[in-house]
Design brief:
Elements (H helix, E strand, L loop, with lengths): L3 E6 L5 E7 L7 E6 L10 H9 L2 E6 L23 H18 L5 E6 L1 H4 L12 E5 L11 H22 L1 E3 H4 L4 E3 H11 L10 H9 L4 E6 L7 H10 L5 E6 L24 H14 L26
Parallel strand pairs: 3-4, 3-5, 5-6, 6-9, 9-10
Antiparallel strand pairs: 1-2, 2-4, 7-8
Helix pairs in contact: 4-6
Amino acid sequence: MEPQRRELLIDNGGTLALRVWEPAGEMQASVVIGGAMGVAQDYYAAFAAWLAQQGYRVWTFDYRGQGESLPDTPGHTLRGYRADLLDWVRDYEAVVRSAKGEQRARPLYLIGHSLGAQLPGLFAQPEQVDGLLSIAAGSGYWRDNAPQLRRRVLFFWHLVVPLATRVCGYFPGRRLGMVGDLPAGVIRQWRRWCLHPRYSAAEGPTALQRYARARFPIMAWSFSDDEMMTLRGTQALLGLYAGAPHSVQSIQPAQVPVRRIGHFGFFRASFRATLWPRTIVALQTLPQLRARPVPPRTDSPDRSADTVPHELTRL
């Protein structure tokens, strides 16, 4: 099954690269797959094609400055390219808006991998979303990282990132074998988030208010052998979605059964017969989560320690 390849105009005059898989048979719903940090939409192609075969209209995309959405500059270099995570929020929401606009009569679900489940809480119009399946996602705060990552991540944030970004004008992750090439604004903002106990709430009370406005149900899958995220981190992220009913499942490889899943494994074609069918059950279950009571907040979105940087006002 081959997807339609499209381009979507964005606010900086550039374009986002999109792919749309049409459903086999009667359409069940639209699904937008939000990718992880530094992961191109190519990585999700096999899963998107399989999901379309199950009756879903599936959209994938590359954030600006990533994959096929690289800037139109000589060599497509990221040196000096201006983009941050709030720009990526708008990219993601623009794709959601397009998908919803073409099929208003059907539900629209998000399947968010890591970063792809973090950013929807900052959407300006979260009511467009009917549910989120969060896969291997959690707070990126360094103390919530998996133990093997936590042992070396401060070296990454305090030395590797500042130095490499200053020298290159972007983060040369591909050359370093870390994360992937990222615009300077993205890696610097992500660094600030990952060093903040409330992660993306580093943007201040306005960010917390955005998350609280998201009322779509969330099903979160945490993998016990994830080399980056932890169950505690997943729960911390869900704590930001203060108004959203949610369910958390901790999945162990032995339950599948497979030897390893990890942070990136779910989307590999080798899980077509084992893990992928659980997606259909999850998408069908999401509407039922709306009836669940939302746990009361244990903190205030107006903590005086938080400030609202001017960047958030651009959303």
